[in-house]
């Protein structure tokens, strides 16, 4: 067993370091959480060249690249391309956190999600040529791989589900409806919606969703590109507490944001969409998430740009902006763009496969507690404020961390800590305004 030590902080120890004068009893988490920390001016710190502002580094796990990550309980599930690692975390009495690699699953992976009870793992492989297994054995083609992980040391593959010849699921999402129905979604060009049967450990496809590509897509040449065009890249699913229905938010690349009612998962109904990209923007909506903020349903999305050898000529130029969008989706039939955000230097994304250039695009994000936790490739991670109408119109930077070479692909928030997965492996971080420990924020994706 390989072990890395995360020389971090115990939840209450970390919190006490962020408290102002007068915070005496850090064992009283609820009382401590009510005392707001004093934040430094993050933009000033950025322009001064600082590596971080209001974000503490708790430690690091891994040796080399990391892609997608999910968490449950005391476990992290890390996709590193050809292997999925199950990692156990132990908070030590001295304030350290020890991370032990419990098991490795050899499967080409693009995304990983775990069930709400931590017993099942769903792996998406977006390779093309997804088809039914021959002779009962899949050829590790694109599709869904389901694992029984009740014994974290001995994961057992229980099934494989192909999704068609174009591509397998680029991103995966697990969601349990109020009646107990467990659903697994895949972004495989379109969206596939599948019911999970835990008795057999299998997925059954219920429906597929795609927007109307003929009538509902902005075909401005600066937006439509020759590679992904209107492929679905990600989806976020939630039970809406106001409308009492299950809503899916699809990041549909150049087709933009789509809001779909999947209360009946076998009959998805599109409620509305948006792809009215402002002038100078290049489409490429990669990830979105939604939360109610006060009395409005606020959706935040990020683009992915920065390729040198695919798509239209705008990629070759390497000048496309990395954008975060903030919408009011309270009425999905009348989505309103409230504001946008770009990195403080307004630096273009850079291009891969070009010497001395790095992709520094926006990428995956989480929206929790009026904040956006954003992976920004070579620019590291940002924490943005969207807690008020003013902040939604012009999100402000609450904190950042940009260790050189980190090249962050994904972020999640678990027990108040931010886990950032990228070239340096998995980095444990903490935005000082958040409570660490069981009372802290957890990502819904």
Structure description:
By secondary structure, the protein is mainly beta. It has a domain at 213-402. Helix content is 7%, strand content 42%. The strands form 7 sheets. Strands 1-7-6-5-4 form a 5-stranded antiparallel beta sheet, with no helix packed on it. It is globular.
Which short descriptors sum up this protein?
single chain, 445 residues, five-stranded antiparallel β-sheet, 30 strands, 42% strand
Topology of this protein?
Blueprint: E1 3-6, H1 11-18, H2 29-33, H3 42-47, E2 52-53, E3 55-61, E4 69-72, E5 75-79, E6 83-91, E7 97-106, E8 111-114, E9 120-125, E10 143-148, E11 156-161, E12 171-176, E13 182-188, E14 190-197, E15 202-209, E16 234-240, E17 245-251, E18 257-261, E19 269-274, E20 285-293, E21 296-303, H4 313-317, E22 323-328, E23 336-342, E24 365-368, E25 371-375, E26 381-385, H5 389-393, E27 396-401, E28 408-414, E29 417-422, E30 425-431
Antiparallel strand pairs: 1-7, 2-27, 3-30, 4-5, 5-6, 6-7, 8-9, 9-10, 10-11, 12-13, 13-14, 14-15, 16-17, 17-18, 18-19, 20-21, 21-22, 22-23, 24-25, 25-26, 26-27, 28-29, 29-30
